[in-house]
Amino acid sequence: MGIAYANLGNYTTSAAFYVAAMGLNGGADNVWAYLRTNIACAGRLELMGPLDTKDLAALQKALPLHPPMPVQG
Question: Secretion signal: which residues (predicted)?
Answer without folding.
Answer: none
